[in-house]
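WARN no homologs supplied; continuing
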Amino acid sequence: MLAAFLVLAGNVKADSSIFTPAAPFELNDFQENLFDSEPQNRYSLKITNRSKWDIHEVYVETSENTEDWGKEWLSGRVLKRDTFITITNLKPGEYDVRFIDEGNDECILRNIAINKNTSWAITTAWLEKCAGYR
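OK structure emitted
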């Protein structure tokens, strides 16, 4: 009965002292990648629009990728004043971020370090200082 409860509970942490090491076995390349012992930290970037302009496009791409902006994260939605988007599952590293507003003005930020969960507020003053905004 206790064993059934532990299986159903799912959140129970196992005490490693009750387990014995498994005998070694070989893995193929696919399995080695699947069971990589190094944890992959992932982070999120929350972007809140506090500016007077609607943001129509948001791109977040690794700084290494200089040829393509990749996915457009709003997917046809509009980031209106006081709304936000959270981009998740970002590997630690440097990213370039691109915003395009309702007037098709563009703001690009280069080499932004993401090494923890991060939150930004886009303000009117901030956008006005960015290249392309007047």
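Confidence is low (pLDDT under 50) at residues 1-38.
OK
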